[in-house]
Amino acid sequence: MTKSLTPAPDAASDRTPQRYEGRAKVTGEAHYPSDVRLPRTAHAYLHVSRIGRGTIRSFDLAQARAVPGVIDILTHETLGEDIRQTPAMYQGGYISDSVRPLGSAEVAYWGQPLAMVVAETFEAAREASNRINVTYHPHPAPSADMGSEGAVTQALEPMNLAVGNFEVAYAAAPVRIDADYSTPTQHQNPIELFATQCVWEGDRLTVHEPSQYVNNVKFGLAEQLGIEPERIRVVSPYVGGAFGSKGFLTQRTALVAIAAKRLGRPVKLVATREQGFTVSGYRAETRHRVQLAATRDGRLVALRQEGWELTSRADSVAMGAASMTARLYACPNVSVRVNTVSADRSTPGFMRGPGEVPYGFALETALDELATALDMDPIELRRINDTRTEPIGGLPYTSRSLMRCFDEAAARFRWGERTKPPGSMREGDWRIGWGCATAFYPAYAGNASARVRLSADGRVHVSSAGHELGQGMYTMMAQVAAEQLGVPFEQVTVSLGDSDLPPAVVAGGSSSTASVAPAIMAACDAIRRRLGIEGASPSEIMPAMKASGRGVVEELAEVRAHGVDSIAGLYRGKAVPSGGVHLPDRVQFALGAQLVEVRVHARTHEIRVPRAVGAFAAGRIINPRTAHGQLVGGMIWGISSALHEHTEIDPRNGSYINANLADYLLPVNADIVDVEALMVEEEDPLVNRAGVKGVGEIGVVGVAAAISNAVFHATGQRLRDLPIRLEHLM
Ligand code: MOS
Fold it and tell me: Is residue 247 in contact with ligand 1, taking CB distance under 6 Å?
């Protein structure tokens, strides 16, 4: 098999700028938050619970304190009320969960921080942590799984949606599907660990922490510590992977801030890989029941999806993407419901395509089952049910290129050579299966601001508190400013990832470019106005600048996203991206087609994915190189999600038994062969001024269903639970 992981997209010609920070990253000049060296730094180490629920009776810290170099040990007893109880983000607050850091003797989940040691060295802090002795009051085994007896199911009524009469239409239809699906717990596992460094200068605090939302950390921490937000600066110029796990303030940051205050020294914490599994949120396990009914010619007449999502006892968190699966296809009778299942676990959070991945897996696998029942090609089934309006509110899609995506992907894949019966394609010992699924992700945007400075010599500086997670934010910001002002890309410098810069939205919901690009454009408009050449083309700007005799023109602009009521939320670190399914008059979605080939060995049942072709329509693509990286990376993650990843839980104590990169299965180079992402041209002036829908997450959506559907096509075995492993095919 030839290997062609990232064929350069045609559009990535020499005119497409290379990654702005690429050189800094490969030469080690890029300093990530934990690389920052501060004089006299003390090192912190978290001591986390080794039970799944219970109450602490006492700490024995004598052995720990005896370790040379130990300076301080924080516990709920020594900390007092220094950190305030604040609402979690799901209740309108900032922090990712509502367990107060070292707030009480209660243990809510395995891996909960119970103490933090501060020492002269990392090694001394770790050694002392190992010598902490915690005794607990007698405690029962936790209910850590969705299926465990003590887990409590609760319907989330506000997430229910319905149109028409599902029950009647379903009962009357000639062809029906009714099946259950499940997806497992997964963890983001960014290579950069969860690090925090805090340093006080007088009453001013600087936090160096990899973050997808520096203003969220600033305002949330201010609330926890009871100080003015203006006294806190959060700096995060590079993030070494996040995928949702660094989106919001977590318990650790306030602990490090307090320790630094008590010591009068900078304090640095780097949570271990294992601790990372409970330090931040994760993708919770889900279950689904999907019922579909259609006419004999394949028109959907009834669609029902009910989801169950695991959450913690403390917080009711649900990704609830039934609001999207309900809107994907033409169907007169739709009913979707969402439930949470509370268990003794840490609070889940966001992981790339948070709801779209599990809800999409269930719906898109069910659609394949329907195609089989109808003896119909699965792409044709989607074509028959394609729509220009979503069925719940009858709202129009601003643009919808789903079938163009399927057509382009199918041509590239040579889908026409597929023979329909399961098990009908074979090469030697390998059974071959071809499967497909729809990818979807809402086109969100949030409020954002940007400052642009143009100098008479043609140099430009653009700044905004956006974030570089590796997705290409620096490049995009420089490119948009260069294009708007008619200067070469190389003359633009960029600042981002700093709460002192003009505020911007969370780097989540695939919304960064859609939010910040319009703010940069607006700042460039303001520069034109200042030069008295409103509406002038980019090529007229430098001549006007020279003629004006000014040395520098600098302008700040704020842009409010569609559907967001005020710009004010932006300055409080709370602004939730809006758009997609939350607009009163339309829906905005990026859409795509995922086509995969699997080969299942007839004797060993080994599953390989030699080929995946995705085609995506996401409005304007500002930089085809970085966008292509996002899409291919997403698709690879989809393969991982289908065949590899599963955080395993020990029901006896609620622990994660594979909380490390050796045991947590991820695809290696040999698992990934041909992965191709095609970008389908699409113009959508309605989504936002930049015409951008975003590509950060859509690449991962639908891949798992395409793979399970391909496995069915290869073997005739329908697998509805992820991950699919060879033992499930025996
Ligand atoms: Mo992403 S899971 O919206 O950070």
Answer: yes
